[in-house]
Amino acid sequence: MTKISAAILCIALAIAASSQHAVSQTIERTLKSQGEMREYKLHIPEGLPDNAPLIIVLHGYGSTNAPERFGMDAAADRHGFAVCYPLGVKDRKGKTCWNVGYPFQEDMKMDDIRFLRQLVRHLQKEYGFSKKNVFCTGMSNGGDMCYVLASRCPGLFTALAPVAGFMSVCTLREDKSQAAVPLLEIHGTMDRTTRWEGDLDNEGGWGAYLPVPVAVQYFAAKGKCTRYECDTLAGNTSSINKVARHIYSNGTDGTEVWLYECIGGKHSWSKTGVDTCETIWEFFSKFLQ
After folding, report:
1. How is domain 21-285 classified at the CATH fold level?
2. 96-97 and 227-234 as β-strands: parallel, antiparallel, unpaired?
3. Which pLDDT score is estimated for 24?
4. H or E element: which one contains 12?
5. What's the mean pLDDT in 29-36?
6. What is the pLDDT of residue 13?
7. Consecutive H or E run containing 24
8. What value does the CA radius of gyration of the chain take, rounded to a whole number of Å?
9. Which pTM value belongs to this model?
10. Which helix (H) or strand (E) covers residue 148, if one does?
11. How many Å apart are CA 164 and CA 212, to the nearest integer?
């Protein structure tokens, strides 16, 4: 190899390396929204190239944005995407949360849809993440927020995956969008916090919300999914030995809506009878552009 050829090769390798993140890292940052400094944690796998997919993970009510609560970092390292964990603000009870319109959130002024829009754009600009492959998942209150996002700003995320979340009657009635939204719900049939059968009488105090299958079917209908199939998976825990997988497909622009019915499952991210993180990525990866 000539000296000129070697120099060209070194330059090419340097350019290639500069477009990737050299080491895996999880950083903590803040972003100002509506006059408040909002916290987030960001995990960037080693060697992640520019224009990589981004997943936003929303915590539950009164919880934190600790990555270890979800296990999504390991999936990000395996499959090559970035994952961001924003932190909700505190309500009048002192609980960190997402403002989804619970009755006791009437006095909350924070617009979390606005914040998440700002966060996505900031991350894309600052770190070079994809402008097309942006996804959102969340647990419990974070899952409820996924339904709000799917209804009020369907173009912000390519697909959404609520876990143990619900769609409120209020969100349903205020939904004016006709956009097809790919959506995956993972939910235990014995969940007593977010009831599988819904809570139309607001017995739990979270506001009236739909039965989980009805909410999923609503998005399948919006997506004009014309094919339905159901199969059964072997659960991976002693308490959940069977998971019914409902798949609505052949929708507008390839839209699919999935429901994992975790037989006997309770209110949990990890104890669902399946590998939650892998299942979510399996779904999201179908819509990569």
Report:
1. Rossmann fold (3.40.50)
2. unpaired
3. 75
4. helix 3-18
5. 96
6. 37
7. none
8. 20
9. 0.92
10. helix 141-152
11. 9
